Amino acid sequence: MTKILDGIRVLDLSRVFAGPAATQVLGDLGADVIKVEPPGGDEARYYGVTQEELAELGVSPSFIALNRNKRSIEIDMRRPEGKALARRLALKSDVIINNFRPGVMDRLGLDYDSLIAENPRLIYADFSAYGREGKLSGVGANDLALQAYSGLISITGEPGRKPVRCGTAIVDLHGSLALVSGILAALFHRERTGRGQRVESSLLHSAAHLMSYFYTEYLMTGTERAPMGTANHLSVPNQAFPAADGDVVIIASTNEMWRRLAHALDPEALDRPIFAEVFDRRRNRTALIEAVSDVTSKLTCAEIVDRLSKVKVVVAKVNSVGEAAMSEQLAAAGGYVELEQNGRSIKSVSAPMIMSEIETPEAAPAPALNADAGDILTSLGFEIEEIVNLTETGVIGKTTGKVA
Question: Which one, of 375, 391, 366, 395, lies nearest residue 75 by Cα?
């Protein structure tokens, strides 16, 4: 077995969610990820925690979730010396990733054209809000802004009520995997040709991909969908239904699956001519949902899951975050990694793929701010005197020691 990205150095200038999520996957695959942080660090270090929690945990859970298998160096790129240092690091890297607004990398002296001229094997990955072209290219945005701009919010929520956001950073995390895909493809292309290239993605591309079949439907027919709660317009039943002790999602998209569902739950109530065919069920959506709900509300979640699983109908209990995080199935599927963070062993979610011939490195904890500055610079050929001068002049941070 091999660490597939062993020997690949990734200079990570990104922050918060999408970029760090992408570089964590590269680190999970064996790349040496150097996380460049501004003075004070990536703000995600402090997201969602109180001062008391931060003192106890050392860093926020959201930062830990997206920053294992990286080394940290704190560089003040507002200063000419910091820009020069970042450029030296870029020229010694295989991949550079940023999620700045278009134009910022140029101002930092890290523009694509000059870097690729000196390092023609470099993979230069841009992740922005709206892409590099167009009137919104210079506008900053985050996950929620693109949920709104893309129309995703407009189809999320309950009918007749104000739309709501998706509960997770879905656009960020989806976009991170697009960035990973592009970088891996560019590395494969480099193996064949010896040449690097620019790889671009954005929150806009990510959100549009999530909305692709809604956009295609609109462009073909002019139809705009509205919020449907947990249901969707593609098939019926395809939503959450009430149980005696919670809620259960049931999906029966084919005629055969519907008949199996009906006979497993209550054939007299459900196996009726008005529900017999796909178009019948869509035409009689309200009556079908009421009929299924009347049956399921008298059964427990476990009973519904047991009955429908046995007849190969798609079914799942609606879990809480805690129930899902402690899932035996997730553990059995290899969905966790173990980390030693802040003096204690914790679990975090693994990369969303398993490969039989590729070794996954033992997970290293999310780094303390600037914890690896000396090691990073020494390994790249910097002299001790240079490192001391960069530290004393404030170009790099003075923090040392692992998060711990």
Answer: 395
Q: With respect to residue 23, please indicate whether it lies within any of the assigned structural domains.
A: yes
pLDDT band of 401, cuts 50, 70, 90: very low
CB 209 within 8 A of CB 178: yes
Residue 114 has a pLDDT of 97
Domain check: are 186 and 66 in the same one?
A: yes
Q: How many domains does the chain have?
A: 2
Strands (E), 287-371: 314-317, 336-341, 344-349
In angstroms, the CA 265 to CA 237 distance is 14
Q: What is the dihedral of CA 65, 70, 76, 82, to 10 degrees?
A: -150
87 and 136 part of one domain: yes
Task: Say whether both 48 and 172 belong to one domain.
Answer: yes
Q: Are residues 81 and 118 in the same domain?
A: yes
**Dihedral sign computed on CA atoms, order 353, 356, 358, 359:** positive
8 Å CB contact between 207 and 150: yes
Q: In the structure encoding, which two tokens stand for residue 171, read together? A: 């656009």
pTM for the whole structure: 0.93
One domain for residues 138 and 281: no
State pLDDT tens for residues 68-88: 999 999 999 999 999 999 999
- State how far the Cα of 176 lies from the Cα of 16, in Å rounded to an integer: 11
In a shared domain, residues 349 and 308: no
> Are 140 and 192 found together in one domain?
yes
Residues belonging to the chain: 404
172 is catalytic: yes
Residue span of the structural domain in which 37 resides: 9-210+329-392
- Cα gap 89→93, rounded to integer Å: 6
E strand map for 307-368: 314-317, 336-341, 344-349
Q: Do 340 and 286 lie in a common domain?
A: no
User: Which helix (DSSP H) or strand (DSSP E) does residue 197 occupy?
Assistant: strand 197-202
Token readout for 388 is 């001391």
Residue type, 138: G
Query: Of the listed 172, 247, 271, 280, which one is catalytic?
Result: 172
In a domain, 402, yes or no: no
Closest C-alpha among 25, 18, 13 to residue 349? 25
